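In this section we walk through a basic example: taking a raw amino acid sequence and producing a predicted 3D structure, encoded as discrete structure tokens. The instruction is simple. Fold the sequence below.
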Amino acid sequence: MNSATLVNMARFILFLAAQILVFNNIDLFGYINPFPYILFIILYPVNGNKSVLLIVSFFLGIMMDLFSNSGGVHTAACLVLAYCRPFIFKTSFGLSYEYQTIKINDSLTPERFSFILIAVIIHHLVLFLLEVFKLNFLLEILLKTILSTLFTTLFCIIIIYIIKPSKR
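The resulting token sequence is shown next.
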């Protein structure tokens, strides 16, 4: 096992534990629920195996569903995010992102911020659409998506700066 695999396993466990123990207990005004566990999918290496990412995203979502008793909505949202991740990279970084060495946890640039923001919006929109599963509540779905996206993005940026490796 190489060090990248160990780092990804540690991230998986830490993000899942933080979400279950801390962030699942945050529910502000009934509309704001931060879900920074998706940082695992966001921080997965660009040149990593995409099939492995889909499988691990499935397990991340299923674990969230088991602990949240949410019936599969986290699994679906994680899989959609993992599947859309290459398209989000192309949107944020341009067509040549595969040939660049992109590290999301480096200093925050507009491209990195747009990548995180688009990823969080996609995840939250799918999550809340499937959670409510009625378009009669479209305004509530959009309000929850927007407010939760703001707080999740804020927590994600803070967490990235906390875990950012120091340059020596």
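Looking at the output, two observations stand out. The chain has six helices and no strands. The longest helix spans residues 138-163. In the next section we compare this with other chains.
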